[in-house]
Input
Amino acid sequence: NTVEIDGIAYDAAATAITLPQGTSIEHYEAVKAALPACDISWEVPFQGGYVAQNTETLTVSSLTEEDAALLTYFPGLKTLDATGCADLSQVAKLTKTYPDLDVRYTVEICGESYPSDTKELHFENPEVSQLENLRYLPQLQSVALTEPQGDPAALMALAENLPINPQKCEFYLPMLVSELIQSGKADMTVLRSPDKWFGVTY
Output
């Protein structure tokens, strides 16, 4: 007894089969539906090539929504190395879709690359516009900024969306004071003092 799919005959009683390289997803799905109890081995068409479905590690230099959807065909996948991937928004979606998958990538901030597991950062005179990618560092706990340049409102909006520990946050107070003065919400008087400055981080 056989089952014919796209002109290819399969043993209806088979418990395991290996599909040839070049098998399309549509053909695989048809075989799977016709032989639900059969263990099917095949190579998944992925990013212009074919990858064994039992692979545990994948490396990608780009990532589309179609690529992300294909990851369901790799049941044993444990690690996805997306270090060269520039579409961080897609990578972020991927980490939420596959929470058990170890997704490795780097984030470029102020001209430097940082691994996704970065926990602490410090920047000297950064442009606020160059800090947008901070939100793609999910394990970030502390960010110290020395004399940031740019729109104070943009900096505050960015800070509100960062996944960091609020008990370890540092804020550049002169920017907040400047914004309040410019908006007419506050006046400030500078007082002279002979005392020396003493800083406390937290």
